[in-house]
Every structure is written in structure tokens, then in C-alpha cells.
Amino acid sequence: MRTKQVFTLPDAPDMSAEATAYAEGRTCVCGIDEAGRGPLAGPVVAAAVVLPMGYELPGLNDSKKLTAKRREALFEELMADERVLKCISMASVQEIDELNILRATHLAMARAAQGLPQAADFCLIDGLAVPNFPLPSANLVKGDARCLSIAAASVLAKVTRDRYMIQLGAEYPQYGFERHAGYGTKAHLQAIREYGITPHHRRSFAPVAQMELPLGL
Questions:
Q1: Between the N and C ends of the chain, which has fewer C-beta atoms within 10 Å?
Q2: Domains in the chain, please, with CATH?
Q3: For residue 44, which phi and psi values (nearest 5 degrees)?
Q4: Predicted confidence (pLDDT) per residue in 3-15, tens digit
Q5: pTM for the whole thing?
């Protein structure tokens, strides 16, 4: 019988995982997270972040635990801090449809890690293990709530994607992308029924694919 892993999450993420990696001889450790695996439209976005040891930014946490206003403020602080190494990358809707969402997410993560201004020699990745990742890595389940560099990456990825979807909302006002960020809300599904799909919809996702079927099938 398999034993289920149980994690006691800290009140706020810290740099224990980074400290362990550095103690093992690593010289540049990044945290990686993504945003946008579940929506029916828009890219998946990943960010890689290297924080200096001892880094502090009050309120930095898993992006899902933060208000939009707080995420925006933290995003600006992280982007403006030259001590913080960061790279934000995407996998397009076309890549999602061609590869599947899991492989496209891993591709965006790899692009982010490899795009850092200083080469990382170890990556802490939120969630489950990523097979064949191009750099040495370890996965941390619920890493965005446990590991500070992953939390920072979660903020950069989430805000970047939200801003992208707001721009898409201005281009396609009838879909309300700025409100639901491409997720399959009732209003979004109704808009697809009424107006059809855009080039930014993921045709490989079941709700979108089903709405492309001719009537009567």
C-alpha cells in the first residue's frame, strides 16, 4: 500500500531548499514556476528566478495567495531589483496544441531556465518532476508555498500572463479575456458559442474542440 506524502507548509516560503543546494556545491540555483496550464485560451508562461541568499521581500508568497494588486507590486519590485536574476518565457497556443499542455509547460520552463542572464546549475521546479529537463533539477510539491525563489517565479509568471490576457481582452472585447484570463467560465463558454473561437484558443482542449464540431454531430 502506497503511503501518501503529507506536507506541513510553512507560514511563508523560505530559502531552505536553495541553501541545501548551495551547501551541496551548486553555484547558481533558480526557482521555476508556471502560470496558465488550465485555461482554454492564451499561452502558458514560465519564469525562472535566482535570488541572492538572505534575500527579503515582505509579502512575497505563492501568487495564488496574493491579491492582484499585491502581485503587481511584488512584480515591479522583483523586476526592478538588479540583484534578482530572472527570465520569463512562454509556450504558444500553437505549441500547446502540437505538443500537449504538459510538454508545452515543460518547454516554457526550460526556456526560462536557459534564458537567465547567468547560467543556472540547479533548478528547483514547482510541482511534479519534469522528465528530461535540460539542467540538473529537483521538484518541490507545493514549492511556491515552500521555496522563496519559486514563489518569486510564480509572481512573475502569473502577472506576465495576466497582463498578456488583458491585452488580448482589448483585442477581442467580446470574450472578456481580461476578466477570466482564458479559463472556462460560463461567460467565456457562452462567448465561444456566440462568436466562435479565436487564434488564441487551444483547439486541443476538449471544450474548445467540441464547440468546433458541426451541429448535429
A1: N
A2: 16-164 (3.30.420.10)
A3: -100, 135
A4: 455 456 667 899 9
A5: 0.92
